[in-house]
Design a protein that fits this description.
The chain is mainly α and 78 residues long. 50% of the residues lie in helices and 0% in strands. The protein has 4 helices and no strands. Helix 3 packs parallel to helix 4. It starts with 9 loop residues before the first helix and ends with a helix.
Length: 78
């Protein structure tokens, strides 16, 4: 199953990383077409909305995604 955000993902649609070969192809296969539930971009989009997904957030940056989600949740509680 493919990620539901794949067609709108700025990481690929703005040529952040070519996805036909190299790391782009590896990321696309791993995160977009397989285990998208561990993609940092997917995590942020699901938790906060796509408008919170930074163009600079790479799929493997789950630690950054988790901090962003946590910080957003803490700020909402104030």
């Amino acid at each position: 199953m493919k990620c539901k955000y794949i067609s709108k993902c700025m990481f690929y649609n703005k040529n952040k990383m070519p996805n036909e070969k190299g790391f782009g192809a590896i990321f696309r296969k791993k995160y977009c077409e397989s285990v998208f539930s561990v993609c940092a971009r997917f995590l942020v989009a699901e938790a906060l909305g796509q408008e919170y997904v930074s163009d600079s957030l790479y799929p493997n940056m789950t630690d950054v995604a988790k901090r962003l989600i946590e910080n957003h949740s803490m700020n909402q509680g104030k």
